Amino acid sequence: MDRAVKIVLFSVIFLASQINCQEAILRISNENTERDYCIVHNHSWTPLSETLDAALQYPLVNLTSTVLCNTSGVNPDLVNGKAVVVMRGDCDFSQKARVAQSLNATALLIASNKALTTPTANDSEYAKVHIPLALMRYRDFLEAQQVFGDGMQAKLYAPPNSKIDASIAVMLLIAIVTIALGGYWSGTCERDRLNGVSGGGGESKADSGELFLYSPLKVVFFVALMCGMLVLMYFFYNVLVYVIIVIFCLASASALFSCFDAVLDLVGCGTGSFSIRNHNFSVRSIILAAVCITIAVVWGVYRNEDRWIWILQDLLGVAFCLNFMKTISLSNFKICVILLSLLLLYDVFFVFITPFFTKNGVSIMVQVALGPDASGEKTQGNMVEVPAEPQAPSEKLPVVMRVPRFSAWAQNLCMMQFSILGYGDIIVPGLLVAYCSRFDVWINSRRKVYFVSCCIAYFLGMILTFAVMLLSGMGQPALLYLVPFTLITCAVVAACRGEMRQFWAGTTYEVLDSSREPLLPEGRTDYSVKGEKC
Questions:
Q1: How much is the pLDDT for 76?
Q2: Is residue 347 annotated as part of the catalytic site, yes or no?
Q3: Choosing from 165, 347, 373, 513, which is the catalytic residue?
Q4: Residues in contact with 311: Cβ distance below 8 Å, sequence separation at least 6, in sequence order
Q5: What pLDDT shows up at residue 369?
Q6: Distance (Å, rounded) from C-alpha 339 to C-alpha 222?
Q7: Which of 330, 327, 324, 332 minimizes the C-alpha distance to 208?
Q8: I want to staple 445 with a disulfide (CB 3.0 to 4.6 A). Which of 3, 131, 435, 534 is the partner?
Q9: Catalytically annotated residue among 425, 440, 513, 526
């Protein structure tokens, strides 16, 4: 019984998530080949079939020499029982449709040199039209003529678009894997550092370049700097975007090198060193550097190619997040609470509050993340607008993971649709996950209680974020859900284990501005934390 209820509930949710979009697909074919093209229609006219198999096939006739505002100059025998393509202009859509009906046409396609907008009419006009009507790009029709010539066959269909898309699962997987790997890497580096210190080895490779945030004042300054940078990006986007792109290429190439180098160390790959004029060089490092720089350069050159470049951007983004979590260390839970709470307020303010102050009503966060002109496809309510001609690519900041929406076939034909997740939604909770991993090392926890608990809390927070996004139909500031989930979970675990004092105070050594050497507390002879062992 319970299983049946669950199946029924899931079915209701899935069907409710199916939405009818104004974008549809035109399948043009002949005996040898077939191609799909973007069209825009209106459900208030005659609705289109939802599947290709159910769609009717019509012979396609080229009447682009006329706008079909009347029947003059049109041979009825040429149009009878066929789908016709006419040019946009001179009269409204309903008049063209009525003229096409009077000529016994079976479908009307309106070729446009302007942006494709949802074809509308007065409510009384919709009932007078009984044939499918849609707009298509004129350049698409010219291409189809070159490919197919005469004898074109056409099918029009509008597959429903599900809000629940596989891209969400892929995005969730990327976030969880990045968080888990980053936390594990940070903990491993901490264990190597402690072993190096206790063994008298000095600074280890894992310890090089590590930066600790231990002062609340520095945390406040860091968040204030982020606010200032975001505001500068909003007002000077067209200039600063290129600065950020260059910095991202350099930083991500370096991060990717660190990740690959760590993996090769893990599998025991040799370095293959050689010397030139008393300078030692590593063959492995040279090859890795060449590969990482090449990947960053390829992304930089082809960054606006939406069809495939998202793969490289996500690869570089994952490497950037992993290296950030490994390099930046929060020294105690107090710093974690201050930093994550301030960044939560920062996220909420710039997403929900700033739209009241901007001219276009768009939040500063969204404007900066997506770019001022990043609206190749614009939607307002039930209206849609698709460019008729290729647009000059608008530069976007490389600050998000991007995964194309796999189920949005019609929308992707018109303009690629992406699910996105900001790097900050991974890095910010990731710093807490990394702290938990290091704390597990300090207390010699074999089960990694804090690390595992924080990862589970992050996963649940992401699930809630996506659920709210799907139900509300609006993008959500993920930190609004991730910060409470992770902080509260960590605090509850520490309290239940009786280790809150140690967890709040954090590391057993102090970090000075001028030195990374640990200072043992008075009377301490080891690196363990006073308290219960796991």
A1: 82
A2: yes
A3: 347
A4: none
A5: 82
A6: 9
A7: 327
A8: 534
A9: 425
